[in-house]
Amino acid sequence: MTWKRVKGWTVGIPGVALLAAACWSLTVTSVMDKSATFDEGAYLVSGTAHWITGDYRLNPEAGPLPQRLAALALLPSAPALPPTDQEAWRTASHDRLGFQFLYESGNDADALLLRARALMALFTVALALTVYGISRRLFGPRAGFLSLVLCVFSPTVLGHGGLVTSDVPAALFFLLSVWCFWRLLHGITPGRLAASVLATGALFLTKLNAPLLFVVFALLVVVRLTGPRPLGLKVGGFEKDLGRPVQLVTFAGLIGAHVAVVGILVWAAFGFRYAPVPDESAASLRFSESWPAVQVDGGAVQDAITLARDHSLLPEAYLFGTARALKWSQRRNAFLDGEFSTRGWARFFPMAFAYKTPVALFALLILAAALTLAGGRGLAGVRRGLYRTAPLWALLAAYWILSVTSHLNIGHRHLLPTYPVLFVLAGVTLGAGTGRLTRTVPTVALAALLVVGTLLARPHFIGYFNVFAGGSSQGYRHLVDSSLDWGQDLPTLSDILDAGDTTGPAYLSYFGTASPAHHGVRAKRLPGFIDFGIERDDRVFPLEPGTYCISATQLQRVFARHPGAWRDWYEETYRHLQPAARRLEEAMGKESALDVLLEERPAEAWYNDYGLFADLRFGRLAACLRQREPDASAGHSILVYRVDSVELRKCLQD
Q1: 498 — pLDDT class (breaks 50, 70, 90)
Q2: What's the pTM?
Q3: In this predicted model, what pLDDT tens digit does every residue of 386-442 receive, in sequence order?
Q4: How far apart are the C-alpha atoms of 638 and 654, rounded to whole Å?
Q5: How far apart are CA 131 and CA 521, in angstroms?
Q6: Where on the phi/psi map is residue 121: left (φ > 0), alpha (ψ -120 to 50), or beta?
Q7: pLDDT tens across 542-591, in order?
Q8: Is the distance from CB of 461 to CB of 489 less than 8 angstroms?
Q9: Burial of 87 per CB tally in 10 Å (0-12, 13-18, 19+)
Q10: Measured by CB atoms within 10 angstroms of the end CB, which terminus of the chain is less buried, N or C?
C-alpha cells in the first residue's frame, strides 16, 4: 500500500466518522423541541402493539419494519398501551390510539418520542454512509466526501431523518437495493445475493410502493445485457463465466429469488399468520375501513391484491395496507400554489422539488453535467459513464415517472428516495480527472453555501423553502401538509404565546395529532384536523379580537369540511346557520336558556349545525387572512395573526 493511499485513509476515515456523528447529532437535536408530527403517534402505538399484542391491524398502510424498530426503543420502559376494550381499538383507529398512547395512558410522551427519534436517526446516518460509499466507488474519495457532505446537510434529509416515519428508511433501502442488485448482475456470489435480497426485503417491509423496485430491476437487466463484460458466477471454490445465451435466464432466476425471499420476509414479519389478530375468533376486531371501501379501481395492482387475498398468498394486514395506500394514490386532497384539488397535478412534485431543494445543489448538479460533457472523453467515454451509473439513472427515472403520475400530492417527502441519487451524481464535480482547480474552487464554494444555508434554517428543516419560493416565510403560499406543516411546531408556538407578544385571547386551528395542551398552548380551539380531546361545549364560543394561531394547512383549507377557496354556496350556508349559532352561543352556561333551545330541537341537532357553522366561519376568516402577511410564525408552519375588532368585523361581515 502506497504512502498516498495510507494518508488518504488516515485523513478520510476520521473525516467520514466526524460527519457521520454530526449527521446523527444534527438530526436528533433538530427534533428535540418539535412536537409529534402527524404520523408518529400512529407509528409508535402500532409498533408497540405489534410486539406486545401481535395485533397487526393498526396503521397497516405503513411498513412494519420502521414501526417495530422505533418501538424497540420504547419497550425497555414498558410503555402502557391504550385500553383494548374500547371502540378505537376495535376499529383500529391508529391516529386516536396514537394520541392516547402518548398523552392519555400515563406514558412520558417526550421521553418516548426522543428515544424513538434517536434510534430512527441511525437510518439517516446509514443513508449518508451509503451515499458516501457509492460515490467513492464511482468517482473517488474526494467525490465520496462531497456527496457525504451534501447528504448530511440536506434540509430534506435532516427534516425527516429524526422522525418516526418510513421516509428516510425507504430512501436508504431503495438506494441499497438498486445498487446491490446492479453489483449482483456483474458477479454472482453468495454475499452479493444475500445483500441484494435482504435490502429488497427490507424495502418491502418499509414502504408499500416497493414493487416499483422490480421495474428498476428489469431496466437494469436490459442495460446489463448490453454491457461488454461476461457474467461471473463464484460459489465457494467454483468459478465460471456465463455467456450471453444463459445470462437472461440467470437474471430472470435472480429476480425470481428476490420475489421468493421478499414473500418469506413479509410472512415472517407477520408471524407467518394470515389473520391480522392472534385470535381468529375475535370477530369484533376489524380494520379502520372495510375491504369494499379500499378496493377502488386500481387496475392490475388491485386485481393482484384481490387474487392474493382470495388465495391467502400474503398476510391480510399487508394486503389491506397496500390496498388502502393504492386508494389514497387515486384521490387525495392536495394544495399547490393557491390551488386546491382532490386529483393532484402532474406538476406537483416538480414544483415541490424546485421550491424545497437548495439552490446550491441545483448549481452543483449543473456544474457536474457541464464538467462531464466538457471532459473530452468522447461519446464512448460518456457511454461508459452512463453504464457505470445506470442503477442511479434507472431509479431516478422510474421514481420520477411514478411521482408525476400519482394523485398522492401530499408531501415533498415522497421524493426523498431521489435525493441520495442526486448527492452521488453531484460528487462527479470532485471526481478523478484533470482540471482539479477549476473543479474544486466552485464546488467547495457551492457546498459551503449549502452547508451555511442549512445551518441557518436549523431547526425548522421541514419548513425550509429556497429563494425560488420566496424563502421559508413564504412557503405556506406554495405547499402545506408534510411539505411544511406536519404538526411539529407546538413548542415554538407556546414560546411565542408565553412571551406575551399577543393581543386578546388566543385561538388555535391546528393541523396535527399532537396535544397542544401538553406543550403548554392555552388557546380556544378553532376547527382543526385532527381534533382530539375537545369536549363539544368547548367548541361553542363567539370570536373576539385576539391572536389567531393557524396551521398553514388549515389556513389553506385542505382537509376541512368545506375545503378550498371560499364559494358562494359556502356563504349562503354560513348566513343561513348564523342566527341559530348565535342563539346557542348566547345560551351557553345558562341552564334556562339551554332548556328553551332543547325544547325546539335535540341537543345533537344544535351541536351538529354549530359544527358546520364553526367550520364555515373559520373558512371565511381564513379566506380573509390569506390576503395579508402573518404577524409572526412558529417554525414557518403555524402562522400567527393579531386581529383587531375592525379586521375581525371585516372578515366575518357581522
Answers
A1: very high
A2: 0.94
A3: 889 999 999 999 999 999 998 888 899 999 999 999 999 999 998 865 456 777 889
A4: 26
A5: 40
A6: alpha
A7: 999 999 999 999 999 999 999 999 999 999 999 999 999 999 999 988 88
A8: no
A9: exposed
A10: N
**Euclidean distance between CA atoms 402 and 409, whole angstroms:** 12
Closest CA to 214 of 169, 260, 271, 157: 260
Give the other-Cβ count within 10 Å of 448's Cβ: 13
Helix (H, G, I), strand (E, B) or coil at 391: helix
| Amino acid letter for position 430 | L
Domain ranges of the chain: 31-272+344-430, 291-335, 485-652
The residue written with cell numbers 428489469 in the block is: 218
Residue 121 is predicted with a pLDDT of 97
Do the bridges between strand 238-242 and strand 231-235 make them parallel or antiparallel, or are there none, so unpaired?
antiparallel
Nine cell digits for residue 551: 396551521
Residue type, 69: L
d(CA 200, CA 262): 7
Nearest to 35 by CA among 643, 637, 603, 654: 637
**Cβ proximity of 165 and 416 under 8 Å:** no
Residues 6 or more apart whose CB falls under 8 angstroms from that of 580 comprise 606, 609, 610, 613
> Phi/psi at 51 (nearest 5 deg)?
-70, -40
Report the distance separating Cα 28 and Cα 459, nearest Å: 10
What is the distance between the alpha carbons of residues 585 and 344, in angstroms, rounded to a whole number? 39
Mean pLDDT over each residue of the chain, to the nearest integer: 91
Query: Is 641 in a helix, a strand, or coil?
Result: strand
Model pLDDT for residues 255-291, shown as the tens digit of each residue: 999 999 999 999 999 999 999 998 866 767 889 898 8
Which residues lie closer than 8 Å to 204 by C-beta, 6 or more apart? 63, 210, 262, 265, 266
User: Is 53 buried (19+), middle (13-18) or exposed (0-12) by CB count in 10 A?
Assistant: middle
403: number of Cβ within 10 Å: 21
| Gap between the Cα atoms of 553 and 476, Å rounded | 8
- Reading the block at residue 538, the C-alpha cell is 368547548
pLDDT at 234: 67
For the chain, first and last CA: distance in Å? 83
Q: In which residue are the cell numbers 414473500 written? A: 263
Helices (H), ranges, 408-522: 419-426, 436-457, 490-498
Q: Kindly state the DSSP code that residue 640 receives in the 8-state scheme.
A: E
CB 450, CB 150: distance < 8 Å: yes
